[in-house]
Specification:
Radius of gyration: 18 Å
Largest sheet: 7 strands, parallel
Shape: globular
Strand content: 5-15%
Structural class: alpha/beta
Strand order of the largest sheet: 3-2-1-4-5-6-7
Number of helices: 9
Order of helices and strands: EHEHEHEHEHEHEHHH
């Protein structure tokens, strides 16, 4: 069991969406919550909510998680002002939501820098103290897109496939060098946060658009119980079985479920606000 009470929990992309929701839930359970984001106004508003939720020791830092120098600087500040990080939630993420030929070079690079490479930089920043103490927990937010490619999500799906591989490798490495340090990879279907505004599902009883409250609560429970993987909804656990099918038949199944049409009406916050949004 990972103890939440009085633990220092760092959430990247914590100023909005599922990151904000997770931060609030950890605060209500008695954690010292630290949120990082690139949005200063969002940070200010969320830290006020955290304090109102009972975390008088809430802290907010503006940070671009693709900037290794800034990460190092902010981690030093956290160590000096709050203490060692007990739980890291790698939540910051971006989505482009378009066909490969419509994506710019910058969009593709940004997707991997935020969704994938930042996990390496964040883990390397907090792991030395965790390994030294042989205690800690790293949560990596992946996606159902990490199990199967989806039309108009080529960069996003690839970045999330990488997250799953990163988490698995990190888990077995830590078992060898610091078994008291745990990891959890979270693989949800689309979440109703606004980041995937406009996505649709053909069979909502089978593949529902998830509510962020439910996902946040599952993440908190997984940390407390040291669960290695969270997959939502349960139907997604069948994807590895369908991988045994020939590719053409696999595509037939995915098309029948409406997966490859799910992004047809995608709008997302990035297009409506003319900027990239974090989860």
């Amino acid at each position: 069991m990972t103890t939440i009470q009085n633990a220092t929990v760092l959430v990247t992309g914590g100023a909005s969406g599922i990151g904000r929701n997770m931060a609030l839930r950890f605060a209500r359970r008695g954690a010292r919550v630290v949120i990082w984001d690139i949005n200063p106004a969002g940070l200010e508003a969320t830290v006020a909510e955290l304090k109102a939720a009972g975390s008088g020791d809430a802290h907010a830092y503006q940070c671009d998680v693709t900037d290794t120098g800034m990460i190092s600087e902010r981690i030093s500040q956290v160590h000096a002002e709050v203490g060692d990080v007990d739980v890291l939630i790698n939540n910051a993420g971006v989505v482009s939501g378009d066909y490969l030929l419509a994506l710019t070079d910058e969009q593709i690079r940004r997707t991997f820098e935020v969704n994938t490479l930042s996990l390496f930089w964040m883990a390397r920043a907090v792991l030395p103290s965790m390994v030294e103490r042989n205690a800690g927990h790293i949560v990596n937010i992946a996606s159902a897109s990490g199990f199967t490619g989806v039309a108009k999500l080529s960069d996003y799906a690839a970045s999330k496939w990488a997250v799953i591989g990163f988490d698995e490798s990190l888990r077995v490495e830590l078992h060898q060098i610091a078994p008291g340090v745990r990891t959890t990879v979270v693989c949800p279907y689309y979440i109703n946060t606004g980041m995937f505004e406009g996505v649709k599902t053909r069979f909502s009883w089978l593949l529902p658009i998830l509510e962020e409250d439910d996902v946040a609560e599952r993440v908190l429970g997984a940390v407390q119980r040291n669960r290695s993987r969270v997959v939502m909804p349960p139907f997604l656990k069948l994807v590895p079985v369908t991988r045994l099918l020939p590719p053409k038949l696999f595509d037939v199944v995915a098309n029948f479920l409406g997966v490859n049409r799910s992004m047809e009406d995608f709008v997302g916050r990035a297009r409506s606000t003319k900027r990239l949004e974090r989860t």
